[in-house]
Design goal:
about 600 residues, alpha+beta, eight-stranded mixed beta sheet, five-stranded mixed barrel
């Protein structure tokens, strides 16, 4: 018999009754029933119940076990009594009557119990992540992550993509987020950077003649954490293709994403549906108008409507004066809200003020009669016309966001989400995908008083050189696109600008000289001058995909060893100070930031 196990703790069934077996695992729970002691023994695969009598040969050992101790149990598989069968466990029809027990490791006091669904403070969970990962939900999330990555990899290979690895030590980039810098010992005073993404390398692979590249790529960015963004590092399904249009890119990656989400839609019995292919295409400007942002949650049925024209010369003086001053008015319908109390409308107005806005105007319709200050002052005929234009029913409501276009769009987008959440309009059992397309190539930077790139400077402008030379820069669109699911941006992508002359011109419009482009992006420019194919790609975030499939509100829950909000690894004590000897080898001296105390 094997020294530690003949079976794992999720393997035994009633067909194994009578067998002599050996299991090893952790003590999940222990229950003393007087004449009998029961232990739930857990390993990676599941749980098996162990039983011993008070006068049994292993009672003393089992009685001494503490939760989470590691033990090897030998015994005979017996059938449970009918009333004792546990239908919630795959092994619930049997138990092991122990004849031998060997303690492999006795657990001391635990920082948190494993056999509990209670929430614990983030610092405890992350400092003792190796214990946290034993908990059923977290353990399942990590296994889901592994299965999703395996599925993504297989589906990409089936689509004709080849996996390559790109460098981790690379050059610092002047674009994008802050780099993580790595000092060079052999080149004192110089630094490598960890890649924010394999962007340039994957494009260079296309220039080198490879056709369809992909990689489950680690990326590193020194940026603050959010619920859907891990500080420090993250993984993405990075891919690039040669001789493709935007539609070719969509046609290649949609089956991969759709297939993975369909494969795991019923994970843990959730029974969710996935939007049909092809995914909906929404132009950027339409998305900003209808949804108030460029990552719309299409499970939310509410659409924002521009009603600025309805308030020219309106009796509601506040809106009329705002419109005359160049502001816009956006309407956010609230289906069925008029049937409730006025408190809902007042609470929404207070919420908007709490978000830093002046408030939300509203009309509440009860039994066909419009109410509220706007309806009272806007005029009966004008209000009826507005309600008809919005298609509102006899017990609906509508909120209004007013201000300059960007400000009104943002408030309307936040209000759209808030209204849908409050009225339970969002279907939690769907995955709704869409592409946001036709991003503007340039925008006007009010602070710098100049035209700058709005999104990705390396995208191909629609119309290419002709557009750059003949159109207002703010009217030029780019072959840029985002893939969005349930309001979460999974990735940005683009058809790349592979022509040096177009790149020089695009950067010139944004205020960069040819010499600056050559200095900052020499590798890319020089490669393009040696013959580059039209190419494009994207990079859906693996962590975000798993977060959506696991139905977790925070990305930390699907990462094995995440950092804190402050980008600290409490378990490994990183970042940490290094020795003077290490610093001397690297030619580095630490300069204390102003106002800080020197390290002890």
């Amino acid at each position: 018999m094997h020294a530690y196990r003949t079976h794992h703790c999720g393997a035994l069934r009633d067909t194994d009754v009578g067998q002599e077996v050996r299991l090893s695992g952790w003590v999940h729970k222990k229950r003393d029933h007087g004449d009998l002691v029961f232990v739930d023994l857990r390993d990676h695969y599941g749980i098996t119940q162990i039983v011993t009598e008070v006068d049994g040969p292993v009672f003393a050992v089992i009685e001494s076990l503490r939760s989470e101790s590691v033990v090897t149990i030998t015994g005979k598989v017996v059938a449970r009594a009918a009333e004792a069968v546990n239908p919630n466990l795959p092994t619930g029809a049997v138990e092991i009557r122990a004849t031998d027990a060997v303690v492999q490791s006795m657990a001391h006091d635990l920082p948190m119990p494993v056999a509990s669904d209670n929430e614990y403070p983030e610092d405890i969970r992350l400092r003792y992540r190796f214990v946290d990962l034993r908990r059923e939900k977290v353990h399942a999330n990590i296994m889901l992550r592994a299965s999703v990555i395996a599925s993504l990899r297989k589906r990409m290979i089936d689509q004709g993509f080849t996996e390559f690895q790109t460098p981790i030590l690379t050059a610092s980039s002047p674009e994008g987020a802050r780099d993580y810098l790595v000092p060079s010992r052999v080149h004192p005073g110089k630094f490598y950077a960890l890649p924010q993404a394999p962007q340039m390398f994957k494009q260079l692979l296309m220039v080198a003649g490879f056709d369809r590249y992909f990689q489950i790529a680690p990326c590193f960015r020194d940026e603050d954490a959010r619920a859907d963004r891990s500080p420090g590092e993250f993984y993405q399904l990075d891919f690039e293709m040669s001789f493709v249009t935007q539609e070719d890119v969509f046609a290649a990656i949609e089956p991969v994403l759709h297939g993975v989400f369909e494969e795991f839609a019923d994970w843990q019995g959730k029974g969710r549906t996935v939007s049909a292919r092809p995914f909906k295409r929404i132009p950027y400007r339409e998305s900003m108008l209808k949804y108030g942002n460029d990552k719309p949650d299409l499970r939310n049925p509410i659409e924002i409507v521009d009603v600025t024209d309805h308030f020219h010369g309106s009796g509601f003086g506040i809106f009329a004066s705002l419109v005359e001053g160049g502001s816009v008015i956006r309407a956010i319908p609230a289906p069925g809200a008029g049937a409730g109390s006025r408190k809902f409308f007042d609470d929404m107005n207070n919420w908007a003020r709490g978000e830093g806005y002046s408030g939300l105007g509203y009309i509440n319709i009860k039994d066909g009669v419009p109410g509220g200050p706007i309806a009272k002052n806007h005029g009966e005929e004008a209000t009826a016309k507005l309600i008809a234009a919005l298609g509102l029913g006899d017990n609906d409501g509508v909120f209004f966001a007013a201000g300059k276009e960007g400000q009104a769009a943002k408030l309307a987008g936040l209000a759209r989400t808030r209204v849908a959440e409050q009225l339970n309009l969002i279907d939690q059992n769907r995955f709704e995908f869409c592409w946001i397309v036709d991003f503007p190539m340039f925008e006007y930077d009010e602070d710098a008083k100049k035209v700058d790139f709005s999104h990705n400077p390396f995208s191909m402008p629609q119309g290419e050189m002709e557009a750059l030379e003949g159109k207002d820069p703010l009217d030029i669109l780019a072959y840029q696109y985002d893939i969005v699911c349930n309001g979460v941006e999974l990735s940005s992508g683009a058809i790349r600008n592979h022509k040096p002359e177009i790149m020089y011109k695009a950067f010139e419009i944004a205020g960069y000289s040819q010499a600056e482009v050559d200095a900052n992006f020499s590798g890319m420019i020089n490669a393009f001058k040696c013959g580059a194919p039209p190419h494009g790609g994207s990079a859906p975030g693996v962590d975000r995909i798993v977060m959506l499939l696991a139905d977790e509100p925070n990305i930390r829950e699907v990462i094995t060893f995440p950092m804190t909000q402050k980008a600290e690894d409490l378990m490994m004590n990183a970042p940490s100070a290094v020795t003077a000897k290490q610093l001397r080898e690297l030619g580095i001296r630490i300069v204390e930031a102003p106002g800080t105390k020197p390290a002890a």
